[in-house]
């Protein structure tokens, strides 16, 4: 169970890093302005930062637990 969580978190972190776009007109701001799915670009950026940070913490906790077992 823990290994599946670790692998899925790893894949999620890789996905979210590749999904993050530059801060220019082609990034999150143009997508948010066109579709209004993510809300404002600032709010979308903050949400992605929180989700990424949480996923990294979960990854490190799983890696530490695997190291001790």
Helix content: over 70%
Relative strand content: under 5%
Low-confidence residue ranges: none
- The SSE string, one letter per element, is HHH
Question: What is the global morphology?
Answer: elongated
Number of helices: 3
Topology of helices and strands:
Blueprint: H1 2-19, H2 28-35, H3 41-68
Helix pairs in contact: 1-3, 2-3
Question: What features would you describe in this structure?
Answer:
- The chain has 69 residues and is mostly helical.
- The protein has one domain.
- Helices cover 78% and strands 0% of the residues.
- The chain contains 3 helices and no strands.
- The longest helix is centred in the C-terminal third of the chain and has 28 residues.
- It is elongated, with a radius of gyration of 15 Å.
- It starts with a helix and ends with a helix.
- The mean pLDDT is 76.
Spell out the key features of this protein.
mainly alpha, single chain, 69 residues, 0% strand
